[in-house]
Amino acid sequence: MADLAPTTVNRDRAIHSLTGNCAACGSSTTKTCSGCADASLVVGLDKTFYCGHDCQKTGWAAHKKTCKDLKARKPLYQAGDLLRKLWLVYRPNIIIVDVEKVEVQDRVITFWESVGETAYAERPFAHHLFSDDRIKESVLSAGACGDATFNMRRFVLDMLHGMCDEMEEITVKIKNPLRIVRDFRRFADDPTYREIACNRCQLDSMGNAVFENNGGTPDWQHQVFRVRLRATKEYFVIDLTNAQYGRYDSVIPWNDYLEERVNVVKELGPLGTYDESKIGGLKDESGTCYSTENNIRYLDLVQFYQARMRFELTKWRAENNLDYNSLLELNKAGFDEKSQQLADHISSALAGLREAAFRSGDYAMNWRTTSDPEECGKIRTQHLKFLASHKIASRAAELKNWW
Q: 220, 225, 348, 368 — which has fewest CB within 10 A?
């Protein structure tokens, strides 16, 4: 049976009361079960209060399973927080548009962007346009659920393979957005901005989303991870891009997610179901490129940054003597500190790599458009050496999707 602990306020999720009623006798108290107090903060649930050890002992039979389950959920919720931090460090480096202007009115975020003639944004992401990190996250996540699924699945697997015994990718139709994001885009040869959302909508006077097509029915398709926690056999959603709908929680119990946020589940499959390379630029068996130069370069870009981020994650964890399990089991204060240090380390390491990433794209494009086998071999060898010089694994097994 866990000791009693003083209550603290959770400032990241729902605010927890400093006082509560003893779960055994109902008396007002400030003491809580220390076994799950920290886990309650992480998960965002109310703490269990006891006025003393006698009452805690009396209530232990009823509280034991809840205490155990909360402690089991804690590392999963902290993994979700870390995955979201990593996604928000990674995403600005691979975004292919230049965000030029952002406006916020009530629950509607509108931004304007331009697309150049290449696969790359012409300028680094415009962080200076945002004074509110949540608005920035909403813009970065707009229309990016497929990108997050494709590019973050390896990190999901690395962190959760021992904690979760099932991992899947799911496509759902979203309902009840708390915010909407409207995206207007222009191309290099056309000064006219056009809204690109497949479901143009606005909020009416009651705050409800009104759609201009599909007969007024929402059709937001959204991709997320679903995992089963090995210790409790509970299913949870990991949603890294729900900021585009005004939500900022990364881990949500599956049944709650279905009830509150989903119109219909469209597709459920194993990790790897969503394959962005099909809209990228790989060769088929005859050596023919599937798609355009820009898509080839974009696919190489996301893999370049993903591989470098994996290197930096491994390096930082070794330097800090923390494997994923140890990091995710830290108390909330310790985890918040270390996870932010890790995110800052990754951000610093990825800064200044734009030219190198573009150069890697040149190698990829040359290889995919060269028909001479001998020349292809030379380009591949040069590319491997170039990647190794930028701290990216040069083993073919690590790069099997690169070519």
A: 348
Please give the Cα distance from 338 to 80 (Å, whole number): 14
For residue 85, give the nearest of 339, 350, 352 by alpha carbon: 339
At a CB cut-off of 8 Å and minimum separation 6, what does 363 contact?
Answer: 300, 379, 382, 383, 386
d(CA 341, CA 97): 28
DSSP-assigned beta bridge partners for residue 187: 115, 190
Question: How far, in Å, are 82, 226, 227, 351, 354 from residue 234 at the CA level?
Answer: 20, 10, 8, 39, 41
Q: What are the beta bridge partners of residue 224?
A: 170
Label the pairing between strands 180-187 and 108-115. Answer: parallel
Q: Which amino acid is at 4?
A: L
Q: For the whole model, what pTM was predicted?
A: 0.87
pLDDT at 364 over 50: yes
Which tokens sit at 50? 């006891």
In tens, the pLDDT along 122-152 reads: 788 999 999 999 999 999 999 899 999 999 9
Q: What's the pLDDT band for 202 if we cut at 50, 70, 90?
A: low
Pairing of strands 28-29, 20-21: antiparallel
Half-sphere exposure of 130 (CA within 13 A, CB side): 16
Pairing mode of beta strands 180-187, 201-203: unpaired
Q: Tell me the CA distances in angstroms from 77 to 13, 95, 239, one per residue in order.
A: 12, 27, 11
